[in-house]
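Consider the following assembly input.
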Amino acid sequence: MHEMGIASSLLKIIKREMKRSKLKKLKKVRVKIGELTAVEPEALRFCFETSIMDTDLDGAILEIEDVPLTGECVDCGTKFRFQHFVSLCPACGGKKIEKLTGTELDLVSIEAV
Ligand SMILES: [Zn+2]
């Protein structure tokens, strides 16, 4: 499962970060998930919670921010949200679209003590 791999790499980063900052208890993790990554937020949450169960990190909360897929038309500069992945500018019908958001899969912050 896609999400299990993501959860384990997130946890790897978190553990390294906590060790470096000498933190003991993980409270909250915030991540950003772009629409284009096709990551199922609930599946990721499930994998995260299963992975930390009965470990030092048990009880930590995963906060997921969904980021919609948006783009900007190269020709007229209109910014818009992609609908059903049809990449035509809604203002001028242009086909040259630059992706702005929606491809990110970021660890935003961790809260730990
Ligand atoms: Zn346009």
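The chain has two helices and six strands. Ask yourself how this observation constrains the way the partners meet.
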